[in-house]
Design a protein that fits this description.
This is CaiB/BaiF CoA-transferase family protein. It comes from Variovorax robiniae. It holds the Pfam family CoA_transf_3. Keywords: Transferase. β7 and β8 form a beta hairpin. The two termini are 40 Å apart. The chain is of the alpha/beta class and 381 residues long. The chain has 15 helices and eleven strands. The protein has two domains: 243 residues, Rossmann fold; 83 residues, formyl-coa transferase, domain 3. The protein is elongated and about 85 Å long. Strands 3-2-1-4-5-6 form a six-stranded parallel sheet, sandwiched between helices.
């Protein structure tokens, strides 16, 4: 197996929940040594559920391959231990409450003054300034605050996006920033600070609705399984009750769809449907026509026609369908002595492991880490 790109890099992660652990787990996948700092009771994500052989699905997912040490940072002794760990780290990540690390004496600017090659990454809810910067921030709250829920789902009661999208995106952005900072350090010899917030990450996802609302005709409505500005692009039901989503992206695809799926080549030049703009304006008539055709086709027949026309489509699957999906790549992982199949990383590399390294128990590596990173007598933060 090829060597991993981050071998020799030590990451210290004072982290909890999802965003920071997501980032540090991907650094661990790339070969970094990740030391996770937990409270004595552990990262509270350990208690989110017990779905995976008694372990939390969240914790198993984003804490693989790490070492765990439990520290009480109200204790002078444990703060000295954290100082000893920081002194040997290349990257320090934290997502505690706003100002918490500074009050403890581990603010990022201070740490970089003490250790000029250190890269620091602070993940917060709303950043470090502004009127809401001290507001508590969890994924669903940021989905609501950023407007994500206002453009998602179908008309009717509000609904959350079904995964922790703000946390995940913030973790990805932190990963990007840290990787860039590591490259920059190779050039300059100095570390730098990376700052990521869940709100900024969500706001960036909202760029298209934002620009449409600020400079165009307005933000898109909640349209369910439709696209607010492309048609046809949505869900249709076949005669056997199975549903699929199809998408037309350009006029060549539209002409082929009309000829080979609808068996109505004349529809392509109908003035109501002759361009995406007018198709979107006449969506009700367009979708009524398509529904009538699909109502006379089984799912298999519809797929045959869509394939012949080279029209993009996808089945509307359940989570159990995903488990059985022929394209799903998984990787085994040890959880409490049993094997769990976990979705593989969404990128394939030459240095991928065949098995995910298990997530650590609380303070599982504490004794070994205390011996390795011994506190110098009288050391202070």
């Amino acid at each position: 197996m090829a060597s991993k790109p981050l071998e020799g890099i030590t990451v210290l992660a004072l982290e909890q929940a999802v965003a920071a652990p997501y980032c540090s787990s991907r650094l661990a996948d790339a070969g970094a040594r990740v030391i996770k700092i937990e409270r004595a009771e552990g990262d509270f994500a350990r208690g989110y559920d017990s779905a995976v052989h008694g372990e939390s699905s969240y914790f198993v997912w984003i804490n693989r391959g790490k070492e765990s040490i439990a520290l009480d940072l109200r204790s002078e002794e444990d703060r000295a231990q954290l100082s000893a760990l920081v002194a040997s780290a290349d990257v320090f990540i934290q997502n505690l409450a706003p100002g918490a690390t500074t009050r403890l004496g581990f603010g990022s600017a201070t740490l970089r003054e003490q250790h000029p090659r250190l890269i620091t990454c602070d993940i917060s809810g709303y950043g470090e300034s502004g009127p809401l910067h001290e507001l508590k921030a969890y994924d669903l709250l940021v989905q609501a605050e950023s407007g994500l829920v206002a453009v998602s789902g179908a008309p009717g009661p509000w609904g959350r996006i079904g995964v922790s999208i703000c946390d995940i995106t913030a973790g990805m952005n932190a990963l990007i920033g840290i990787q860039q900072a590591l490259i920059q350090r190779e050039r300059t010899g100095r570390g730098s600070g990376v700052k990521v917030s869940l709100f900024d990450s969500a706001a960036e996802l909202m760029t298209v609705p934002y620009l449409q609302a600020r400079y165009g005709a307005g933000a898109p409505d909640r349209v369910g399984l439709k696209h607010p500005s492309i048609a046809p692009y949505g869900a249709f039901t076949c005669s056997d009750g199975r549903e699929l989503v199809l998408s037309i992206q350009n006029e060549r695809e539209w002409a082929s769809f009309c000829e080979r799926v609808l068996l109505r080549p004349d529809v392509a030049s109908d003035v109501r449907f002759a361009s995406n703009t007018v198709r979107t304006s006449n969506r009700a008539d367009l979708e009524s026509l398509i529904r009538d055709v699909f109502a006379g086709l089984t799912y298999a027949q519809a797929v045959d026609r869509l394939t012949e026309a080279q029209t993009a489509y996808g089945a509307i699957n359940s989570v159990h369908d995903l488990i059985q999906h022929p394209q799903l790549r998984t990787r085994p992982m040890n959880v409490r002595g049993l094997v769990a199949q976990v979705p593989a990383t969404p990128y394939a590399t030459e240095w991928d492991d065949s098995v995910f390294v298990q997530a650590p128990g609380i303070d599982e590596h504490g004794d070994a880490l205390r011996r390795e990173f011994e506190v110098v007598s009288g050391a202070s933060i």
